[in-house]
Amino acid sequence: MKNTGMTRSLDTLGRIVVPKEMRMTMSIEYGDSVEFFVDEETGFMALKKYTGVTCKLCGTVEHLTYYRASFLCIDCTQKLKKNIDCCPIPAPSVQEHIHTQRTNQSAEKLLGRLRELMQEHPRARQYEYAQWLGVSQGRVSQLKKLMQKENSSNTL
User: Fold this and answer.
1) Beta 44-49 vs 64-67: how paired, if at all?
2) CA nearest neighbour of 21 among 6, 1, 37, 35
3) Residues 8, 111, 119: CA angle, nearest 5 degrees
4) Which of 60, 110, 142, 153 has the fewest CB atoms nearer than 10 Å to its CB?
5) Is 139 left (phi over 0), alpha (psi -120 to 50) or beta?
6) Are strands 34-39 and 44-49 parallel, antiparallel or unpaired?
7) What sign does the CA torsion over 68, 73, 74, 76 have?
8) Which range is least confidently modeled, 17-21, 26-30, 92-96, 129-133?
9) Percentage of residues of the chain with pLDDT beyond 70
10) What pLDDT score was predicted for residue 97?
């Protein structure tokens, strides 16, 4: 689990808006149900898209069994056992893994690069800035807040 850096306030009726970026990445559409999870000891609350009592693989509601926090039907279980409709996932090479690792960059460098990108591409979305910078969307949000603080202190 990672910190997104996004915060939202409850309204007067106790409602909260799930940010669009998060809804998109989790494939939560208008009208979809979400499931809440709570750890009272730590005060941690999480939510995920509710899939109901259906097979995780094919969506059927008949002949289900519960395995590792998911429901699977007998047909899908048999196919998995016999390796039917399965294809092996190639292991990534060492070079690919090294190439995809993110490097820590100083906030000043990231701020400078983000300013340049925002000037070059003023209509780009936050996830595009994140991809170009090689950081998370939450980090882009934090950088934007830092820019706003700098701008407001410069105008005083």
Assistant:
1) unpaired
2) 6
3) 95
4) 153
5) alpha
6) antiparallel
7) negative
8) 92-96
9) 90
10) 45
pLDDT band at residue 14 under the 50/70/90 scheme: very high
For residue 52, is it left (φ>0), alpha (ψ between -120 and 50) or beta?
left
Contacts of 109 (CB under 8 A, 6+ apart): none
Domain locations in the chain as residue ranges:
1-50, 53-85, 104-155
Strand partners, 48: 35
The whole-angstrom separation of Cα 86 and Cα 33 is 30
Task: Report the 10 Å Cβ neighbour count for 72.
Answer: 22
- Dump pLDDT digits (tens) for 57-96: 888 888 888 888 788 899 988 888 888 877 777 766 555 4
Alpha carbon of 90 to those of 19, 83, 93, 100: distances in Å?
A: 34, 16, 9, 16
Q: How many residues does the chain have?
A: 156
Helical packing angle, 137-155 and 126-133, nearest 10° = 100
Q: Burial, 54: exposed, middle or buried (Cβ in 10 Å; 0-12, 13-18, 19+)?
A: middle
As assigned by CATH, the class of the 1-50 domain is: mainly beta
